Amino acid sequence: MNGEGEFEKLSDTDKDGPVDNNDVKVDVVGGGGDSDDKGEFAGMKKEELLVYSTQPFWVRTRLVLLILFWICWLGMLIGAIIIVALAPRCPPETSWYKSSISYQLHPRSFKDSDGDGNGDLPGVLEKLEHFTYINVGSLFISPVFEAEWESTTDTPQQIGYHILDHKAIDPIYGTDDDFSALYAATKALDIQLILDFIPNHTPITHSWFNASKSDSEGDYGDYYIWADSPNDWLNNEGDSAWTYDDTRGQYYFHQFGSDLADLNLRNDAVKEELESILHHWLHKGVMGFIIRDASYLMEPEVTTTDDSTDDSTDVVVTTASVTGVTDAGALSTVAATTEESPSGEGELRNNPENHDILADWYNVIQEYNNLENTTYVIVEVEGEDTAELVEYYGEPAQRAATAIYHPAFTDLTEDWVVTDLDLDYNFTEHLKSNNRWAYWASGTSDVERIATRVGMDNINLLNMMVILSPGTPLTYFGEEIGIWNTVAAEYEAVSPMQWTDAADNAGFSTNTTTWMYLTDSYQDHNVATETGVDMSAIEFYKSLTALRVQEPAFYQGESELAGIIDDTVMAFVRYYEDWPAFLVAINPGGDAVNADFTDTMKHVKSYGKVELSTYDPSRIGRKLHLAEVHLDAGEGVVLRLSN
Fold it and tell me: pLDDT (tens digit, 9 = 90+) per residue, 60-85?
C-alpha cells in the first residue's frame, strides 16, 4: 500500500529472489503512521473505560440488570416450589395383585369368535377393550384345558372342570397359539393372566386313572388311593367316599363325586407331575393360579384295626398306605374306624399336611418372580373354623399362599342384613398382618347371580362392598351389568355374556344355537345399552373400580372397622399414611337411618365429601358432618374425609 492508502502491486520476484505463488506476501503500510506504532492496541484504554463505567447511565443499567437477574432467579425458585407442592405425588409402589381389579370369566360363555355357539379364546381377545373400560388389571380365566365333556354320571360336565390334560388347550376354546396371542395382547395392556389349578383329583376317564386301575404294580399304580375294602369316610356330598372298580378289584377314594378320583399326593411322582403343570404355564407368562379345593388335598391319618395280628391292636396308617403297602406288613385292608376317625361329611377337610404341599407349590411359583412382576398364589379353602382357615396363609418362613380365595359375599340374599356378614373373619382375622391378603368373590358359577340373589336395587351396594373392602376384589363376569340367572337349573350362573340388545344372542354368537340359554334380561342389561348411562350398573361399577385403583387408601392402605351401627349400618375406613382417607358406609336395611360415625372410629374426622352414592347421585360433592350422616334404605356412600 502506498502512502495514499493504495495497495502496491507485488512482482513475482523480490529483491531476495522469486516468490512462491502459494506463499503470497502482503505488507500493510499505515496511512502516514510511524512504523514504531505498528501492532499497538487501537481501542479504548483502561483509563477511558473506567471513566465510562462511573457515568450515571451505566451505573443505573448495571443495577437494573442485577435486579432483573435476582427477580428471575427468585421467580424460578418460587415456581419450582409451587410445582412440587401442587403436582400429584407418585403413588406408592405395590404388587400388581394388590392394586388391580380381578375379573373371572368362563371362556365358553364370554364371546364366540367363530360362530359355533361356544365362546373361545379368540373371543376373549376380541373383547379386551371391555376390561380396560372397567379398569380390570388381572384376568382369571376358568379352565381352558382339555376336559371331559360327556358325563360319566348324572351330573352334566359342560364348564370344563373335569380336566384330562392340564397342559393342553381344549379344542372348543382354540389352540395353544390362541392362548399365546391372548397373553401377548393382555401383556401389552398390563393385564395379568390367572389360571385355575385343580390338583386334588382327576376324572376317572383320565389316562392316569386308566393306567392305575389296569396295573396296580405299574408306574401309575399308586397315583390314586386304593383299598381292598372301604372304611366309613364320607365325601363332601355325604355319601361313601369309596367306589368299587371292577377292573382293579379294589375301591378308589373320592372326596367329591364317584367320577372324580382323588390323587395320592404323598406319591412323589404325582407331585412331580403337578409341579410340571405349574412350570408349563409359568413359562407361558401366567402370573398367578387359584388352587382349587385346597382344603381336600391331603387326607388325614386313619385309625384302623390290624387283622394280621393276634391282638387286634389299633395302628395308625396314612392314606398312602391304604394301597396295601405298609411298614408293618400285611396291612392291606382298611377295616374300620374308631370314634376319633373323621367319618362325617366335611370332616376330611383341612388336614395340616395341606400346608406343606401348598408351601412346595408356592415356592415353585415364586421362582418366576422378576423385577417387573410378582407371581400370585390364591388358595380356595372351606370350613367354619376361622383360625383353621387363616393358617393357610402360612408363616413368613413357609408361605403357603399369597391370598385366600373366599366367597364371603356369595351367600347374601335379597333380605340380607349386615349381621349376615362374619365381620370378625372377613375383616379382622383375614387381615391382621401384612402376611395376609384377601381375594373377595361376589359371585361364582356355583351360586345365583347377584341380580337374582339380592335384587337389581342392591347390585351397586354389593359391588361397593366387594370392590372397596381390604384385599383384591374378584368380579364374576356379567355382574358388572346385572345379568340374571339362566333358566338352566344346573348352570344358572354361566349364561352367555350380554354385549348388545340384539335378538340374535345379544352379540355373543352369530350361531342360531348357543351352548347355553341366554337370560331374559339381555334387552335391558347389556354392555352397549348401559355404557354411558348415569347410574347404570356398569357405569357405577366403573366409578368404583376407578376409585379403587387410583387411591392408595384402597389398594395399599389399612382398614378400621366400625362394625355395625344401629343394628343396620356397616362402615369401615380405608387410610394410608398422609394420603386421603375414605369412609365406606352401607345400609342394606329397609329403613332410612341417620348414623353417627364420630364416636366409633379413631380415623374418622369431622366432615366427609360424598364421592359416590348408590342411591342419589345429586349428593356427590356435598360436605357432610359425620355426626349425622343420612343413609336411605339400601344406600351405600363413600366419603372423602376432611377436617
Answer: 888 888 899 999 999 999 988 888 77
Q: Is 18 helix (H, G, I), strand (E, B) or coil?
A: strand
Query: Cα–Cα–Cα angle for 227, 231, 236, nearest 5°?
Result: 100
φ/ψ of residue 453, rounded to 5: -75, -50
Half-sphere exposure of 92 (CA within 13 A, CB side): 15
- The torsion angles phi and psi of 464, rounded to 5 degrees, stand at -60, -45
Tell me, letter by letter, the H, E, C secondary structure of 205-261: CCHHHHHHHHCCCCCCCCCECEECCCCCCECCCCCECEEEECCCCEEEECCCCCCEE
Strand pairing category for 438-441 and 403-406: parallel
Strands (E) in 426-568, as ranges, are 438-441, 472-476, 558-565
Residues 122/178, Cβ–Cβ less than 8 Å: yes
Q: Which long-range contacts (CB under 8 A, 24 or more apart) does 219-222 make?
A: 219/269, 221/323, 222/264, 222/267, 222/269, 222/320, 222/323
CA nearest 606: which of 582, 585, 627? 627
pLDDT (0 to 100) of residue 427: 59
**CA–CA distance, 284 with 287 (Å, rounded to integer):** 9
Gap between the Cα atoms of 450 and 462, Å rounded: 8
Q: Which H or E run includes 566?
A: none
Residues of the chain under the 70 pLDDT cut? 1-44, 87-89, 150-158, 300-346, 370-373, 384, 386, 422-435, 487-490, 643
Q: Nine-digit cell at 583? A: 369412609
Q: Which cell numbers in the block locate residue 380?
A: 380356595
User: Rounded to whole angstroms, what are the CA distances from 449 to 127, 478, 482?
Assistant: 22, 9, 8
Rounded distance, CA 534 to CA 233, Å?
55
Rounded to 10°, the helix 353-366/268-283 angle is 30
Average pLDDT of the chain to the nearest whole number: 82
Report how far residue 431's alpha carbon sits from residue 428's, in angstroms, rounded to the nearest whole number.
Answer: 5
Neighbours of 458 (CB within 10 A): 22
3-state SS class at 133: helix
Please report the pLDDT score of residue 272 as a whole number. Answer: 97
Residue keyed to cell 336395611: 589
pLDDT, tens digit (0-9, with 9 covering 90-100), for 246-275: 999 999 999 999 999 999 999 999 999 999
Let me know how long the chain is. 643
Residue range 453-485, pLDDT digits in tens: 888 888 899 899 899 988 899 999 999 999 988
Residue 320 one-letter amino acid: A
Please name the residue that has the C-alpha cell 401384612.
434
Sign of CA dihedral 542, 543, 548, 552: positive
Q: Rounded to whole angstroms, how far apart are CA atoms 482 and 451?
A: 6
